[in-house]
Amino acid sequence: MKTIPLPGRSKVRPTLWQTVRAARRLWWGFGLTTLLAGLLASRVAPDKVSLQAGDVAPKDIVARRSIAYPSSIATESARETAALRIPRQYDNDPRAASEAGRILTTIFGVLQSEKDSPRHDDLPTRIKDAQQALPANVRISPAAIQTALTASDATLKDLKGRAEQVVAQVMDTDIRSENESVDVARHDAGRLAAGLHLPADATALVADTAQSAIRPNRIFNQQATDAARDEARRAVAVIEKSIAKDELIVAKGEAVTPQDVEQFHALRLQQPGLDFPRIIGLWLFLGSVVLSASYFLRYYERRVYNDLRMIRLISLLTVIGALGLKVGYSYLGVPLSPSQLGYLATLWVAVPAMLAAVLINVDTALLISSLLAVTAGVAWEVDARYLAMALVCALVGIYGVSRIRDRGDLVRVAGMVALANASLVWILGLFNGDAQSEMLMGTAWALGTGVGCALFFWIFAAILERPFGLVTHVGLLELSDMNRELLRRLQWEAPGTYHHSLGVATLAEAAAEAIGADALLARVAAYYHDIGKMRRPQYFVENQQDANVHDRLAPSLSSIAITAHVKEGMDLAKQYHLPPVIRDAIVQHHGTSLVSFFYHQATGGEENDDDLEQQFRYEGPKPQSKEMAILMLADAVEAVARTLEKPTPARIEQAVLGIINAKLGDGQFDECDLTFRDIGGIKGAFVRTLASMLHSRIEYPNAPVPEGPPKNGKEIGANGQKDAGGPSAPTTTDAPGRSAAAH
Fold it and tell me: What is the C-alpha R_g of the chain?
């Protein structure tokens, strides 16, 4: 039993050409991703700052991204603070009290010895000898020594006991080895001595001896102190600080501090090397964007996806948007605030989208605007409000440029975009609580963005049209100028064809508007579709004045002469550098139609000779778009309508319907996306337009009637058109008679 293959499971191997095309797209996407990453990396690797601590900042230095970083300065400061909170460590000196008692005993022993000395020197000499006999670090005032030398033994013994009492009391307290602590203890000893209520000289002796005996009983331990403080330092965790996006680090004119330098390092402002992890992340993000766009085009815009020229154009438009951001932000040397950067992003999201709308199609334009907005938001960290503004601006711009019909429309596009931006400034400003001054400044930027969108659109449209073989509405407007050399030549060399083309343009434009096709393209294509008739204008009925040259030619030669105007039109189109879409109009407006009158003549009424029939057909191709199909019908309808006598709406509708049915039956619309609904709209537009063009005229009762037969046997119809001399009224452009076949 034969199985039916399921969709998506085909095992047909791709051809070599398909493989090559896929590889080319892959490399193209890789190159585009890398190029975009290079253009957008300036926000990832910002400009280097060479300032050091103490330098004066020449400009405001602002953080271009939000980061959190470990602050070594803050951490070290916190650790030192924690270490200083740890008191100095001391060890107890168990011998301090006994050493103090020993010193006190030594002092009183020296004084008693000097007092008991058998020498009979004078008192000053004895005082001086006593001072020299005391230990080196003991200082007793001469008055106190004199008191000791002159006191009785009992009194001196009592004073010694009082001094021992004072020393013992003071030594029971903590006396650290620092001078300050010892001084405090000695001061306490003097205070205690004064509290004994002794005579002044005795108090002085007790105080001096006690103070001299005081020794520290708590010895500073440097090693223990250092260990405790190190432990306190280790207990302090690393302190992290954060920098907000667009936060001012150093204002212009301020001195740079060590903390500022640390922030420079954290933001990699002082490191010439790139932040490779962020660069790789940016590249991967852009790669995912490019890949997503490729899949969208593959499944929803197959015609664009299969055309490498369109892929290149989309890539170029994307690069233009990224390059506009880069140039506006970095290369102009003007520091931009976050809001100004947002308006810049709005401009360079909208301009590529507007260009894509007229160079490719609206769906692709929407795709480009969305992806550029997302890219600007991620890579350049543009605020969400400006991304919303950019998308709305792009939508308004796409709508505006897709409906350009004259040069004034470009001014209206600028106004529409500016008005939309200004409105969003106030709407979002009210939503976010912005100050009125900020919204007024934003309005000025928004208006400038609208003008910039229109200006850059006009410039890039003119630059990109010819290299990519495309034509925008701006280019079509230039081609529609009736003073262009080629149209002027057509007017002078083939005036009948020129006026025929104007009529076709009117019909084609009306029909295109009726079905939503490109009316401007249909009208301009109609102006140029028959330019090939300038080479042999006398072969076509609308240009004939007297004799019909086809009366002297065989049907096959007449057919060749008629169909040659397509090739000759292409030669002129290349000579005058007409865009491909106009060339398509020249070769497709007849499709593969049959030059039926000459074919009927050649066959003698027999119409079953397929080989001969092929010789009397145009080479084609058949119309590939709605606009080209409309042009084919308008060309045929305009030619036939001029032969109608008393063109009532009913007769016009019958003639139009006959031509449409003939073209449908001949399969001329098999290769375009024209629907039956479209055909109904086209028929209605043709009938309405022809009814207004061929309106009935008043017959004047006394109009002179020429006598005798008309010259060359031609009859003049009611519309003033020379009839072909055929036996019946025409139903198609090449059906009745040789002259009608010229159309």
Answer: 53
**Token couple for 573:** 């189109």
Nearest to 476 by CA among 465, 485, 486, 468: 465
Distance CA 241, CA 264 (A): 13
In sequence order, the β-bridge partners of residue 242 are 68
Residue 175 phi, psi dihedral angles, 5° rounding: -120, 105
Query: Residue 739 in contact with residue 548, Cβ under 8 Å?
Result: yes
CA distance 727 to 399: 52
The position carrying tokens 């709406």 is 649
Angle between helical axes of 626-641 and 519-528 (0-180°, round to 10): 60
Give the helix/strand (H/E) hosting 170: helix 153-171
Residues 6+ apart with CB under 8 A from 494: 530, 533, 534, 537, 540, 542, 543
Integer Cα distance of 483 and 135 in angstroms: 126
- The residues, any chain, with a CB within 8 Å of residue 648's CB and separated by 6 or more, are 696
pLDDT at 723: 35
Annotate 459-491 with b (16+ C-beta within 10 A) or e (fewer): ebbeebbeebebbbbbbbbebbeeeeebbeebb
Provide the pLDDT for residue 19.
Answer: 65
The pLDDT of residue 120: 60
What is the number of alpha carbons within 13 Å of residue 280 lying toward its C-beta?
3
Within 13 Å, how many C-alpha atoms sit on residue 359's CB side? 30
Cβ atoms 40, 289 nearer than 8 A: no
Residue 680 pLDDT: 94
Q: What is the DSSP letter of 61?
A: E
CA nearest to 678, candidates 473, 525, 513, 523: 513
Contact 619, 560 (CB under 8 A): no
Nearest-angstrom CA–CA distance, 514 and 686: 10
Would you call 583 helix, strand, or coil by DSSP? Answer: helix
- Mutual angle of helices 649-665 and 626-641, in 10-degree steps: 130
Amino acid 196: pLDDT: 84
Contacts of 637 (CB under 8 A, 6+ apart): 507, 655, 656, 659, 686, 690
Contact predicate 682/509, CB 8 Å: no
Four-point Cα dihedral 494, 500, 505, 511, nearest 10: -160
Which residues in the chain show pLDDT less than 70? 1-22, 42-48, 119-121, 270-275, 329-337, 380-381, 406-407, 605-611, 695-743
Instruction: Kindly report, residue by residue over 11-42, the tens digit of the pLDDT.
Output: 455 565 556 666 777 888 888 888 887 777 76
